Amino acid sequence: MIFIGADGGGTGTMLAACENGRRIAEAKTGPLNYRFIPAEEAVRNLTEGIAALGTPPERIAAVGIADPSLDDAAGEEDGAAARFYGLLGEALSVPVFGRSDAYITLFGLKRQLNGGQNTPAILMISGTGAMGIAENSRGEIRVAGGWGRMTGDEGSGWFIAVEGIRAAFRADDGIGEKTALGKALLTRYGAASLRGLIPVFYGDHAPQIASFAEDVADCAERGDAVARGILSEAARFLAAYAAELVRFSGARTVGIYGSVLTKNRIVREEFEQRLRDAVGQPQGQGIEVTVPSVPAEEAAARYAETMIGKTEEDPS
Fold it and tell me: Residue 293: exposed, middle, or buried by beta-carbon count in 10 A (0-12, 13-18, 19+)?
């Protein structure tokens, strides 16, 4: 049997087809965050991605989704999720198992830690959005962050990008520190002036905002103090979330996932140092920060396989 896993995101989705625990095909498709795009579009992106894998439909046993729109701690009816999974059920003829992208990546991390049996662990994600999730030895789950871009999403690519844009505008208005972020904005979005970005940001087709986080990182690496300060603030929030999850779970392994934590050198280094400082001595020095060896899309496929196994054991 073949299990399909999808790592959904706000800007794109990675899919993998796995058979006997081995990745046999992969594909990329459009975003899956049905809180910011129509559910119909998210379903279409996923089904097109599954088709691009080239896997015979009759051999697919189930689909697992690392869903960027779900919150494992919500515990309440979610109309947007119900609509998405209802439409997806109509489009696919196999079982679909969705959990938050944070939980799925944590699931993959726990599999590599002593088989995942009663092993406390933490997973911090910072890509377009940011959140952390922890599971203790009793199987209890707690999340931190992940409130969404309207209420902060501190530590995320979105947060870094928006703070960078604000800093550029404040500098242009003469009420903020001088920074190279304004020039980077013009280059990124092809505008002749910063005021010319207003119709770009508020036009009919909103641009990708979170991608500007890459430019903030570039400016910081070149010595821009304002950009460096923004990255430090992002690291501070991420470390605070992680420290609270360490206290909850007792975990000594903190997995990191997403481009901000895995590719942004400044954020990664400051996150690790701030986390150890926040936890304190001697516990802080015993914390291992690691990138999970199982990508989220593969972890989603393994989760679907696990759930199918549980269904077969207990068909009721």
Answer: exposed
The distance in angstroms from the start CA to the end CA of the chain is 22
Q: What is the pTM of this model?
A: 0.83
Q: How far apart are CA 270 and CA 283, in angstroms?
A: 18
Asked if residues 6 and 46 have their Cβ atoms less than 8 Å apart, the reply is yes
Q: Which two tokens stand for residue 300?
A: 């989603």
Residue type, 226: V
Structure tokens at 184: 């980077």
Long-range contacts of 167-176, Cβ-Cβ distance < 8 Å, separation of 24 or more: 167/226, 167/227, 167/230, 168/194, 169/194, 171/226, 176/226
C-alpha dist (Å) from residue 100 to 66, 76, 217, 271: 5, 14, 27, 23
96-100 β-sheet, strand order: 22-29, 13-19, 2-7, 60-67, 96-100
Q: What is the mean pLDDT of each run of 10 residues along the chain (316 residues)?
A: 91 93 94 90 96 94 92 72 92 93 89 73 91 91 87 91 97 98 96 94 87 97 98 97 94 91 96 92 77 92 91 60
| Distance separating alpha carbons of residues 311 and 316, to the nearest angstrom | 8
d(CA 4, CA 268): 31
- Residue 256 pairs in a beta bridge with 124
Pairing of strands 121-126, 130-135: antiparallel
Distances (CA, A) of 144 to 15, 71, 165, 238, 312: 26, 10, 26, 9, 34
- Taking alpha carbons only, the member of 179, 205, 182 closest to residue 192 is 182
* CA–CA distance, 238 with 271 (Å, rounded to integer): 7
